[in-house]
């Protein structure tokens, strides 16, 4: 959800407007090509303050949905070590503070390949377990 709120909306806007620049290959787009509102959406959606506030509000009305929403702060927890201050730093407690951690970017091979391998292993494991049960 956090990435869809910022980059997902940007992708839809660019697809609808016919702007396909910086969408395929070539690495991350230059920061100056990204609209200002994406930065605000990113800060909102990658803040524990926003996540806990939203979960608390939803909890009052639907506990099952609120429980599923705990994936949001979990995403932030897994994401913040892998963003450098140079490219979309994760401001964990925004708007209280702009503090961010200078992490190792996802784009680095020593991060990207183990992450991809972990996802592939998880899918294989789930498929194997599903076949074993069924």
TrEMBL record:
Keywords: Membrane, Transmembrane, Transmembrane helix
Transmembrane segments: 34-58, 65-84, 111-128
Protein name: Uncharacterized protein
Originating organism: marine metagenome
Top-level taxonomy: unclassified sequences, metagenomes, ecological metagenomes
């Amino acid at each position: 959800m956090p990435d869809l709120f910022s980059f997902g909306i940007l992708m839809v806007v660019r697809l609808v407007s016919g702007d396909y620049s910086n969408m395929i290959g070539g690495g991350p787009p230059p920061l100056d090509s990204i609209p200002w509102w994406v930065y605000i959406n990113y800060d909102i959606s990658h803040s524990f303050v926003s996540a806990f506030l939203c979960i608390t509000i939803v909890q009052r009305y639907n506990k099952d949905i609120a429980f599923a929403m705990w994936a949001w702060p979990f995403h932030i927890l897994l994401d913040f070590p892998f963003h450098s201050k140079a490219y979309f730093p994760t401001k964990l407690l925004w708007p209280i503070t702009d503090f961010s951690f200078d992490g190792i970017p996802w784009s680095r091979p020593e991060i990207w390949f183990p992450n991809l391998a972990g996802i592939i292993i998880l899918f294989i494991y789930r498929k194997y377990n599903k076949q074993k049960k069924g």
